[in-house]
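Closing statement on the ribose-5-phosphate sub-project.
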Amino acid sequence: MKIIPGPSSTELGRKIAEILGVETVSVAHKKFPDSESYIRLEEEVKGEEIVIVQSTGPPQDTNLIQLFILADAAKDLGAKRIIAIVPYLAYARQDKRFLPGEAISIQTIGKLLKTSGIDELITVNVHESKVLEKFEIPAKSISAIGLLADYFKSKGLERAFALAPDEGAAEFAIEASKVLGGDYGWLHKERDRYTGEVRTEEKNLDVSGKDAIIFDDIISTGGTTANAVKILRKQGARRVFAACVHPLMIGNAKERILQAGAEEIVGTDSVPSNVTIVSLAPLLAKALAEKIKG
Ligand code: R5P
């Protein structure tokens, strides 16, 4: 097995290779003046099982096309099999027709993964795991919530209240509470499909005098998390922390959440960002090691 650390996940790919003690294949890459991507594999891949590590956070379209070009090139150069590790799977939130006539974009991505020569996909906390069932290649999503909860536990936040900022994230609060050993809950959120504006309903949470941590899969503009921080502060939470697997951190998301009253925001290296603290490398290396063992 050889690992190709893709341009968007060079450090993460190298860390996974180091944990597993497998060779990496370097990638030379650049952008042409018109923004097209150039890719060259600098070592042999012929006859090898290849793992491409390439997350598809912003700029999503560039990172996706680089993933497709890398996979196609590796197959063309004789790779036996390709596993793609794509921690953040772009377009997974567009998984149905919310408004008439909309594209189900993740369906298109699924088709392109297969067409580009990828045989198997491993992703992390995909927004809606049902979308993977429709892919024509084996695809699984593993959860990094335990890693995030471990981080807070090691900082002495044992028994902190785990809050999901919407019903879709309730499973994260439950998972985190198993590590933290405290209570959990979730809020109800609605998003305006035209403006993207988020409205969160306040409900009574038993957080007065307690530390609380908000767990979500994605922080994008920060609106969802900021609303949850404000509700926790209003209800007397002692300290409020925010955690997410995929820190897209668009615009002033970080400032918005801190200004709402959060002490710290913690994300993973799924998407390198200004809040990336926890590495997915041990989790992904374990998933690959299980595969090697068969
Ligand atoms: C959507 O439901 C996701 O789980 C996140 O809550 C959402 O993507 C966060 O977006 P934003 O940070 O823009 O509110």
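Residues 165-166, 168-169, 198, 216-225 surround ribose-5-phosphate (CB under 6 Å). With this model delivered, the sub-project is considered complete and its resources will be redirected to Aim 3.
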